[in-house]
């Protein structure tokens, strides 16, 4: 297992290197505009543009710029480690911006993931046990609604009903948990539920299908023949066998939301990493874009590794040499 983890970490470094190279290439080799223009005022001259390009290192060959970027990541820069430079738009160090916005996104993901995992698995199990009953139909109706309803519409409706009309939550924005835990939860409860609804619906359908397939396998018939209770057959054998794909989905969903929850963050004005990524792309802010891409890629790679390790415990047939 230890050797396998070391191999996966080696591949993770290659993936990070490849993603940064592609992102760096897109922004520097196929740019829609010159980043130097934002530093030279409203009436730039060729001399001032050339001076800014020289100060930013944009006049150097591509491979020199990329090597300097990698060196800063590995060794750090004057703003700390890892060295991600500063924003072309606000001149704020990217490291500081990520550390400021990451708690917002991570708080959103943590709460929503717990809700969608518990809700999705429970609904899927109940639907599979009560197959072709009114409970099953209601559960699948919920799943269809959750998959079909747009996140931005759900978010706006939730704000209109529970904040504007009923005044039950704190509305949009974000309060750090260290400042006021109650306000932190009040601001995040609606984003948690709205984001979780889509994933809970998908998980419910997946768990239902997997559990129904597992209940028809030979090992389930063997467990019943041994005289085990139906509850133990379902939860100890059937559900455990059907959770392996769910683990994969759960790990990747969490990782992808690190930089991909932009719609939820925008509707509820959370201003997290997803919003930062989209905003930096539109502003042609390469350092900010690369910073978010690195964080999101690292999250995907690490969650993939964690999922593979958990697989070995869920499925005895899986072993890593």
Structure report:
- It is a single chain.
- The protein is mostly helical.
- α4 packs across α7 and α4 packs antiparallel against α10.
- The longest helix is centred in the middle third of the chain and has 36 residues.
SSE arrangement:
Elements: H1 2-29, H2 46-56, H3 62-75, H4 94-129, H5 134-148, H6 151-165, H7 181-214, H8 218-225, H9 230-242, H10 244-260, H11 262-267, H12 273-282, H13 286-314
Strand content: under 5%
- Helical percentage: over 70%
Low-confidence stretches: none
What kind of sheet is the major sheet? none
Instruction: Note the overall shape.
Output: globular
Radius of gyration: 24 Å
Number of helices: 13
Task: Find the structural class using helix and strand composition.
Answer: mainly alpha
First-residue to last-residue Cα separation: 6 Å
Mean pLDDT: 85
Please summarize what this structure is.
With 321 residues, this protein is mainly alpha-helical. It contains 13 helices and no strands. Helices cover 74% and strands 0% of the residues.
Throw out a few tags for this protein:
321 residues, mainly alpha, 13 helices
């Amino acid at each position: 297992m230890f050797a396998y983890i070391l191999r996966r970490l080696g591949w993770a470094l290659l993936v990070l290197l490849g993603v940064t190279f592609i992102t760096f290439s897109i922004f520097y080799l196929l740019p829609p505009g010159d980043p130097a223009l934002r530093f030279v005022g409203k009436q730039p001259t060729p001399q001032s543009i050339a001076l800014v390009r020289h100060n930013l290192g944009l006049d150097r060959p591509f491979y020199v710029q990329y090597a300097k970027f990698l060196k800063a990541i590995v060794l750090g820069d004057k703003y700390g480690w890892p060295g991600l430079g500063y924003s072309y738009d606000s001149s704020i160090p990217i490291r500081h911006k990520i550390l400021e916005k990451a708690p917002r996104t991570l708080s959103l993901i943590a709460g929503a993931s717990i809700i969608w995992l518990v809700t999705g698995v429970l609904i899927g199990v109940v639907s599979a046990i009560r197959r072709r009953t009114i409970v099953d139909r209601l559960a699948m109706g919920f799943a269809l609604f959750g998959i079909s309803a747009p996140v931005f519409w759900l978010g706006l409706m939730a704000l209109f009903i529970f904040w504007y009309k009923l005044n039950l939550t704190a509305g949009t924005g974000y309060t750090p948990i260290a400042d006021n835990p109650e306000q932190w939860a009040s601001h995040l409860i609606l984003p948690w539920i709205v984001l979780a609804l889509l994933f809970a619906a998908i998980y419910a359908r997946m768990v239902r299908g997997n559990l129904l397939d597992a209940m028809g396998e030979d090992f389930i018939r063997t467990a019943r023949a041994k005289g085990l209770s139906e509850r133990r057959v379902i939860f100890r054998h059937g559900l455990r066998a059907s959770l392996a794909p769910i683990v994969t989905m759960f790990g990747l969903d969490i990782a992808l939301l690190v930089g991909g929850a932009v719609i939820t963050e925008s509707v509820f004005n959370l201003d997290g990493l997803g919003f930062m990524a989209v905003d930096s792309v539109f502003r042609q802010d390469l350092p900010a874009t690369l910073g978010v891409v690195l964080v999101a890629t690292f999250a995907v790679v690490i969650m993939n590794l964690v999922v593979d390790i958990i697989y070995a415990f869920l499925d005895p047939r899986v072993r890593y040499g």
